[in-house]
Amino acid sequence: MKQTKRTNTNVHAQERRLHETITDFAKERNMPQTLASLEFALQHHKGQYRSGGDHLPYICHPMTVAVQAIALGFDDDGIVAACLLHDVIEDCNVTEQELPVEEDVRLVVRLLTRDRKTGYTEAGRSKYYSAIAENPAAVIVKLLDRSSNVSDMATGFPYEKIMHYLEETHRWIYPLFEKAEEYYPEKQAQLLLLKYHMDSIENTIDRFEEPEKDGKTKETA
User: Fold this and answer.
1) Residue 7 pLDDT grade (very low, low, confident, very high; cuts 50, 70, 90)
2) Deepest of 3, 27, 73, 113, by most Cβ within 10 A of its Cβ?
3) Which residues are CB-neighbours of 70 under 8 A, at least 6 positions away?
């Protein structure tokens, strides 16, 4: 799809704003892993774009996930760094050893990386999400990642993939909220807000899929 000048301007402004927000926060809080991960992700996601016609640079996705983490108070240096790096092994042909972070953050990124051969099989999904559930930081990054993806799926996913993605979200992602509440009991409000965001998008899609009949309002989950 051909991009208009205005759209390109907005896209670049969004990318710049995200970059500035993360950089300013990380410098103020002395977060060296976040700063290093930001530049690493920028370098390795260069030339990649999100699915769909908006031609949004892919780097906007991990940066959005990182800003979500900061905004919701999950602003540990390791968590924000993992948000920025969560797709680089899977999508950028880099190794875990190349990541500019400490071993605990490398572990989180490793857990968030699907096996290309088995990661989308039933057994592969079970193994993948079970391992994530055992690591508090990986749980949070995965929830933030899925929140971002659910927000963007209408611009890049065909209808069938949206339905499949929501089914996977219910089966594998929602149980992670229970683990997150165990790991971060002080973040109940933030986690509730995150889940409400995903619920509201799903309920909107449900409403379009099954419109009101006979003037009756369809109850939401």
Assistant:
1) low
2) 113
3) 21, 22, 25, 80
Residue-range domain boundaries for the chain: 5-209
Could you give the CA distance from residue 40 to residue 94 in angstroms, rounded to a whole number? 11
What amino acid occupies position 221?
A
Picking from 88, 37, 33, 35, the residue whose alpha carbon sits closest to that of residue 58 is 88
Nearest to 62 by CA among 79, 101, 197: 79
Q: What single-letter amino acid sits at 205?
A: I
For residues 6 and 35, which has the higher predicted lDDT (pLDDT)? 35
What's the CATH fold of domain 5-209?
A: Hypothetical protein af1432 (1.10.3210)
Tracing tokens 């099954």 back to the chain, one arrives at 210
Which tokens go with 208?
């379009």
Give CA–CA dist 59/136, Å, rounded. 24
99: which residues sit within 8 A by CB, 6+ positions away?
Answer: 37, 40, 85, 88, 89, 105, 106, 109
Q: Which amino acid is it at 69?
A: A
